[in-house]
Amino acid sequence: MKVALRILTVLAAVTFAATPALAAGAAPAKKRVTASEEFMEMPGLTATITQDYRITGLLQVEAGLDIHDDKLRRKAEALMPRLRDAYATALTAYAGGFYIPGNVPDADRIANMLQAATDRVLGEEGAHLLLGMVVVHEQP
User: pTM above 0.90?
Assistant: First the structure.
């Protein structure tokens, strides 16, 4: 009984100690991949792999943009929803037309397709797409 009371006391103390930080709106710091301010990390991108009108797997890509020009970086941040849509479209085209299930995905082709989408959305060159990971999750 005494142990349970001590545990409850400690939990209550921790809860009340955390409350002022939460009330002040303090959000946990976002973990960055690099210290460079020129690198924009992109959320994970996925596309469904289909063959013979059925789903055979999932293509998962992690990427980022390396942008040295501050003006272009701000433009890319403002156009992030359009960039994500262009990336999803490009990955879907790759997964549905170029990728053959069971083979290794062509990272060069994926990077070229995503770079072309980046240049098209931003309307200029200067943002360099960097691939971090390309993974295929196959259905059994």
Answer: no
